[in-house]
């Protein structure tokens, strides 16, 4: 376990005082008034090595400047029908808060198809939710609960996971790498629910490849995880796919109501979309909002992430052959270069 001492933090602060002014300005959007806590996150991500944590943070700040990340919350995905298509195929939402005030982020891993828009729109949408979480949701929770809140809880729904998920590995690896390099240590715990056999088999080979600090954050729950999750959150904050007592299913519980936290009609997405449009109007009040995706440079995956992606691909293919699915459209051979 890495111990972050005051001396290490002091060294990091000293290095950050020497960076250029543009980097200092974008750093403010990251730390939101809590620079020390932010430095600690990057230190944890680099096992307490000050030089590596500093390089990681500087690289992240340069990435933000080069890709205009500070302005991404003023770049709405339009028209609304396109954004709805993104939401219907990239199943992510916020269902409420834990009893400790941490935002509950729900992810429909198994039923996300990522087939309604270009990869750039999905990357843009993901980063916007990250930035909205960090610049709006977490500061609001900090104020409401009277203590600094900088992390969230993620509940990953594996309902519907199948071999065609191979088609998504390149995109998911890009998203994972962006998070690893630029939003480290933002998730307190990952709860995995509605687990099919294919996930259980893959988890056995992937788990040993994860860093120890990541493994400790992951909890695989039985069925929909309802009873276990109610220990840390109220019923109203449960994602819709966890509200069934048994093996919950987002396929059957996505009923078009406001309870569906993945839907554009859910309060979280309505507030997020309204916020982004409003920021766009404030930035350029006399200029019509242009349609088009917000292109972001995809960082090269680190060797550990690349190894995990390759292992997943190999395991999915093995399962397909084992089950006589070698000619199935779900058994797709893709490149993750």
UniProtKB/TrEMBL annotation:
SMART domains linked to this entry: CRAL_TRIO_N, SEC14
Residue intervals of the CRAL-TRIO domain: 79-239
Pfam families, A to Z: CRAL_TRIO, CRAL_TRIO_N
Superkingdom of origin: Eukaryota
Stored Gene3D superfamilies: CRAL-TRIO lipid binding domain
Protein name: CRAL-TRIO domain-containing protein
Native source organism of the sequence: Ilex paraguariensis
Lineage, top ranks: Eukaryota, Viridiplantae, Streptophyta, Embryophyta, Tracheophyta
